[in-house]
Amino acid sequence: MTSELLRYTLQVALISFMLGSLADVGLKLDVRDAWTALHDKDFVVPSLLSGFVLGPILAIVIARLLALPEPYAVGLLLLGLAPCAPFMPMLSDIAKGDAAYSAAFIVIAALGTILLMPIALPLFAPDLHAGAGTIARPLLLLILAPFGVGIAVRQLSKRWADRCDPIIRKLVSFSTAVLLSVAFLQNWDQILSAIGTWAIAAQFIYYCALALCSYAVSFRLPHEKRGVVTIGVCTRNVGAALAPLSAVANADQRSTTMCILAAFITLIVGFAVAKILGRLAPKRDLAINAR
């Protein structure tokens, strides 16, 4: 009975977290600024390469080099196909990134995840036994729908969007606390068993490698755009990674554990990278931001 209650609570908290966090991002997204940034091919190309080519490849390479058990490797691949955490704009501000380009990266990441994950996951993780339709449905419902609703509300009334934002943010904070607490209670034995593997180390290595590689790939961009690409790529959308697992019957619990661990690890690495990028920002950019 307790186990069933925890599982049900976890599902409700996950859905609330995803719906709320993506709606909140949409409520704050300035479509005109994002649209302008999306026309900057010097920004879009490294964003796509870093997010959807380097991301999955590094996940597969690191999983094989460290000989991760298959369920942990599947979890890492799911994370590799889901760049850009919902809290990415906050970290981008710390890194002195451009807000318009942060909005553009969120759009790229959301659409890229929805399009690529249903195609790539069955190819690289056949043991998951999930078809493209099974993977796509929760992504459309839990990413595209709330994201689109948030954008639509802001387009209809910026005043209402600003009023709804703090309410949604509180809901997301509560859902996050419940999600992490219940996930730990339900999976504490799996989390402890992961300590004896390379699962945790693999994630730290992976996010740090993503930060370095994305920073190198975007070398032609000025700091305020380069920082956006780096932060967007080295943080992971844990909800999007968990969504396909919630739709697959009898998914290995260790894959879920790998994604849950990411909620902590991607924030730690992302914050550290943002602080470093903030210090690397040219003084000219710092002076502009100070105004």
Automatic annotation (TrEMBL):
InterPro entries: BilAc:Na_symport/Acr3, Bilac:Na_transpt, MFS_trans_sf, Na+/solute_symporter_sf
Domain of life: Bacteria
Gene Ontology terms: cellular component: membrane
Keywords of the record: Membrane, Transmembrane, Transmembrane helix
Chief location: membrane
Membrane-spanning segments: 43-66, 72-91, 103-123, 135-155, 167-185, 191-216, 255-274
Protein topology in the membrane: Multi-pass membrane protein
Subcellular location: Membrane
Listed SUPFAM superfamilies: MFS general substrate transporter
Record's protein name: Uncharacterized protein
